[in-house]
Amino acid sequence: MRTDAVLLLHGLWMNSVAMFYLARALDDAGFTTESFNYRSMRGTMSEHVVALAERVAGTSADVVHIVAHSLGGIVALNYLQGTRDERIGRVVLLGAPVGGSRAARGLADWPGGEWMLGRSIDNWRADGRPQLDAAACVGAIAGSRPFGLGSVFMDIAEPSDGLVTVEETRLPGMSDHLVLPVSHSGMLISHEVARQTAAFLRTGLFER
User: Fold this and answer.
1) For the chain, which terminal residue's Cβ has fewer other Cβ atoms within 10 angstroms, N or C?
2) What's the rounded Cα separation, in Å, for the pair 186 and 46?
3) How is the chain split into domains, by residue range?
């Protein structure tokens, strides 16, 4: 019988504890979840990708899906662009700034801002968007409730989750994209985000 695992990646300033609610919700939905901790502040993107590759390689499941929040989504996409495990299944990005983050660029101009963004600062500043492999099944959930520190560092009228704009979460070649009324951190404890994540992991599409 085929075994599937869902690997959860946290975002900047966080660790796997931040993904606890989502992990429990996916477990309750019938999935087997595993966590991936990485040094979001102190490590470089290449170091994150190597660590993720090692974590995936150490997973015994036949299929490994990925659910990644914020910076974790950028780590996942960089991993997909390189040599990757053929067991990778579906990928769900939650509030991931795949087109760079205007808020991060604003924060970098404040005293201590570059330190707060860590060694992955260039990935937050990036304007270009990574290319998806044609075979990749990637879906993204964006938030439209602008509550969070990011609203201090960006003055824009576009819908956002308080840190990442909806537009910054879009990537050509995605299998699906969904906007929900949640904030950047609030999406991690949202029943609807968990439900839609489970739907995409099962079918490759969000429910509408």
Assistant:
1) N
2) 28
3) 4-125+136-203
